[in-house]
Amino acid sequence: MSPTQHARLPALPVKEWEGRLFSGGWVSAARRADTLEVFTGKPLLAVGEASESDVRQAAAAAAVAQPSWAARAPEERAEVLRRAAALLAQPTPELVGWFIRESGAVQAKAEMEFGAAAGELAAAAELAQGAAAPAELHSIQPDRTATANRVPRGVVGVITPWNMPLMLALRSVAPALAVGNAVLLKPDPNTPVVGGLLLAWLFEQAGLPNGLLHVLPGGADTGTAVVEAPEVRMVSFTGSTAAGRVVARRAGELLKKVAVELGGNNAFVVLQDADVEAAAAAGAWGSFVHSGQLCIAVGRHIVHRSIAERYVAALVDKAQRLIVGDPSSSTTQVGPLINERQLMKVRDIVADTVTAGAHVAYGGKAEGLLHWPTVLTDVRPGMRAFDEEIFGPVAVVTVVDDTEEAVSLANATDYGLAAAVYGRSPEAARTVAGRLNAGMVHINDQTVVSEPQLPFGGTGCSGNGGRFGGRASVEEFTEWRLTTESTPPRRYPY
Ligand code: NAD
Fold this sequence. Notes:
Elements: E1 20-22, E2 26-28, E3 31-36, E4 43-49, H1 52-71, H2 74-89, H3 93-103, H4 107-130, E5 135-137, E6 144-152, E7 155-159, H5 165-178, E8 182-186, H6 193-206, E9 213-215, H7 220-228, E10 232-238, H8 241-253, E11 257-261, E12 266-270, H9 276-288, E13 298-304, H10 305-321, H11 340-355, E14 359-362, E15 366-367, E16 370-371, E17 374-377, H12 384-387, E18 394-400, H13 403-410, E19 415-416, E20 418-422, H14 426-434, E21 440-443, E22 459-460, H15 471-477, E23 478-486
Parallel strand pairs: 7-8, 7-10, 8-9, 10-11, 12-13, 12-20, 13-18, 17-18, 20-21
Antiparallel strand pairs: 1-2, 3-4, 5-6, 6-23, 14-17, 15-16, 19-22
Helix pairs in contact: 1-7, 2-4, 2-6, 3-4, 4-5, 5-6, 9-10
The structure holds nicotinamide-adenine-dinucleotide.
Nicotinamide-adenine-dinucleotide binds near residues 223, 238 and 458.
C-alpha cells in the first residue's frame, strides 16, 4: 500500500489566509476583497488581491524557480502530484462545507468535483514521464543526428472561472506542473479560496517546492497583468467567449501561446426511436445539474415531433420533483445561481424567449438567487434561448420533423463545444453524431461528460482548437525543441 493512501488534509487554516495571496509563501496584499457565501450573501473571508506589481514579482520568481523543477526526475514531479491527488481524494467535511458555501454547489456536485479534481491530479502525474521521452529524427545529412524533445513552456499563466473552480484550475495547473512548468494562477473573484488559495495550500502539503505555484486573486485587471507579465510564455484561459477574445487578442499581440476554453450552447438530439423516459432523464440531468452552470450543459433539446409531447411531459415531471434550495442542506438538488447578474441574465433570456413565442411548460420562478428548473417549449432559432448560452437551469426544447432538420438546427450555433445524440439504433445515432459540429460528441449520453485522460475542448466560439486531457495536455503545456549534432563539425565556404 502506498504511503499516500492514508494521507489526510489537516484543518483548514483559513483565518491565516485573510488579506493574503500566495507567492513564495503567504504574503500580505495591499488590496482586499470579500469572498461571499453564495446562498446568504454573507462575507466569508477578506482575501488579498494581487496588484500588477505583485503579478510582476510572482512571474519573475516563477521564472527563477522553474528550470530546477524542470530538471528534476519526472518521477519526483509525479510524486508531488500523486500526494496532492491522495489528499484531495478524501476531503474533510469542513473543506466540502467551504466549497458549498463559497461556490453555491450542492453536496453531490461538491463531492463530484473533489473526485474529478483528484482525478486531474492523478492523470497529470502520469504525464510527467511522457513529456521527457525524446524523439530520434532522420536528418537528410548523413553526418548529422537530430533529436526533438518536448520541453516545458516555462511560466504558464492560468485564468479560471467560478463554476468548477477547483477542477478547472487543476485541469491546467496539474499538467503544467507535471511537465516542468511554473504556474501563476488567477482564480475568479467569486471563488478565490476554493479555486485559488486552497490549491496553494494543497500543493504546500504535497511538498511542491517554493516558487513554482503563485496564487494571485483579483479581477480582470489582475488577469491582464498575468497575460502581460514578460516571463509568462503561455496563457491557459477558461471562461466566457467575450473575455477569452480579449485575452487571446492581447496574448496574440505579445506572441504568447494561448489556450482558450470558452462557452457552449450544446445540442442534445433525441431521435424518433429513443427510449423517451431514459432520454428525458439524461436531458434533465444535462440541463439542471449545478443549476445549468456548466460550459458543457445541455443547452438545447432537439426532439423529433413524434415523441416530443411525451419527452416534454417526462422532462416536466423530472423538473418538478427536483428539490430547490439552500445548498448546505444535503437533500437539495438545485442550488442558487452564482450572483444577481447571472440570475438576471437567465430571467431576461427566459422572458424575451417567451415574448418571442415560446412557452414555459414548467418553472420560470425565481426567489433570491434560486431559479427553479424550467422547461421552455416551442423554441426556434432567432429566439434568445436558442441562440445564446443561458448558464442557468433551463431546458430549451425545439421540435424537428426529421433527422436532416435535427442536424441542421443542432449545428445552427457559433459555439462548438459538446453535443450528444440519443436513440435506440446505434447505427442511426452514430450517423447523426458524425455530422454534429463540436469538439466532443457523445452517443447515448448527454453532453456533461469529462474524463481527465480524454481530450476536452471545443471549436468555433468555444475555443481555439486546443485540448486538455492526457497527451493533449502534454502538447499544450510543452513545445518542441530540436537538437542536431554534426560529426565532424560542419565546415562552410566563407
Ligand atoms: P469570465 O470570462 O467573466 O471570467 C473568467 C475568468 O476570466 C475570471 O477569472 C475573470 O476574472 C477573468 N477575466 C475576465 N476578463 C478578463 C480579462 N479581460 N483579462 C484577463 N482575465 C479576465 O467567465 P464567467 O462568465 O464568470 O464564466 C462562465 C463562462 O465560462 C461561461 O461562458 C462558460 O461556458 C465558460 N466556461 C468554459 C469552460 C470550458 O472548458 N470551455 C469551462 C467552464 C466555464
